[in-house]
Specification:
The complex is a heterodimer of chains A (73) and B (256).
Chain A lengths: L1 E8 L9 H5 L5 E7 L5 E5 L9 H5 L5 E8 L1
Antiparallel strand pairs in A: 1-4, 2-3
Chain B lengths: L2 H4 L5 E3 L17 H16 L5 E5 L14 E4 L5 H11 L4 E7 H7 L1 H10 L4 E6 L2 E2 L5 E2 L18 H4 L5 H6 L4 E8 L3 H18 L5 E7 L3 H4 L3 H15 L3 E5 L4
Parallel strand pairs in B: 2-3, 2-4, 4-5, 5-9, 8-9
Antiparallel strand pairs in B: 6-7, 8-10
Helix pairs in contact in B: 2-8, 4-5
Classes of the chains: A mainly beta (73), B alpha/beta (256).
The complex binds thiamine diphosphate (TPP), iron/sulfur cluster (3 copies) and magnesium ion (MG).
Amino acid sequence: MAFKGVIEVDTNLCKGCSVCIANCPTDSIQLSRAVNSKGYHYAEMKGDACVGCGACGVVCPDSVITVYRVKIQ
Amino acid sequence: MNIEDIKRPENIVYKRPALLTDNVMHYCPGCSHGTVHKLVAEIIDEMGIQEKTVGVCPVGCSVFAYNYIDIDWQEAAHGRAPAVATATKRLYPDKYVFTYQGDGDLASIGTAEIIHACSRGENIVVIFINNGIYGMTGGQMAPTTLIGMKTATTPYGRDPKLNGFPLVIADMVAQLDGTAFITRQSVHTAAAARKAKAAIRKAFEYSSKGVGLSFVEIVSTCNSGWKMSPVDANKWMVEHMFAKYPVGDIKDVLAK
Ligand SMILES: Cc1ncc(C[n+]2csc(CCOP(=O)(O)OP(=O)(O)O)c2C)c(N)n1
Ligand code: SF4
Ligand code: SF4
Ligand code: SF4
Ligand SMILES: [Mg+2]
């Protein structure tokens, strides 16, 4: 069984610490070029390899990631 | 399947814990304190004990923990959280009472309070954030600072001849008859955070069994004080802190 995932980052509250990026097994997160209102480059999903494992959400110190996952055949 | 079809409430597998307030944490980017707060919030929610839990805040970066987890809190004077928790638990024996303390707070100014609370076997939980430094005040040496580690007050690295040796508090309190469960964990990866969560939950469960004090050390980072990026601080912690503070259970009186 395979899974496809999507993450949603509360970009205004992300502090750009990159801990989520270091923990993603599929290299699906990057820091944005733009900055948020606090001046941080925020985390954003890249590519379509996310499997919705939830690792990024668990390690985010500011708890600003929501992870979605669906089964695909 | 496109992204908007996946982003539906029924497909959520991870979200911000319900017991975290909307307040933006004042911690530096990547600080371990935030990750531990999240685990505590999840455990209290999952155990259904929001109305029965009292946290005791320290002095240190986590002095404002009461702004972030939606439960009852007490603020203690520097290092005195185990004494405040003792009184709270004795007056309200049906409550779940925990302290949340840094290494400066617990292992330096509050050494007497933690040793005696452990020795008395108070039925409380102690969450001990060991980042090897005084984070809040600008990165001075703590009793837990590693040999050779540079801090604001040991600019050439901690020298045992001048500054003494690191204090390994969890192993010390494991010797005391009043402690029930002692473990050392970390939160730098998802797997580590899940283990830490299970350990903190066990500590909360033990605290209602009358078996003594449960002590959960979280080997942590203070990337600002260590003067590293958050990701490098996590790597440095694994490479250096774990040698002196290895993760794993140290004592469990109920282990079969
Ligand atoms: C009686 C007293 N002495 C000293 C201080 C200064 N002080 C504030 S926080 C702190 C140490 C904090 O270090 P730690 O407990 O390790 O917490 P961290 O910030 O690293 O999480 C000190 C010495 C104080 N506030 N009160
Ligand atoms: S871990 Fe959280 S705060 Fe840090 S970059 Fe990722 S989303 Fe942002
Ligand atoms: S859910 Fe897993 S795969 Fe997807 S971005 Fe987060 S860590 Fe990467
Ligand atoms: S100074 Fe250190 S302990 Fe305090 S919030 Fe910053 S990183 Fe965390
Ligand atoms: Mg500290």
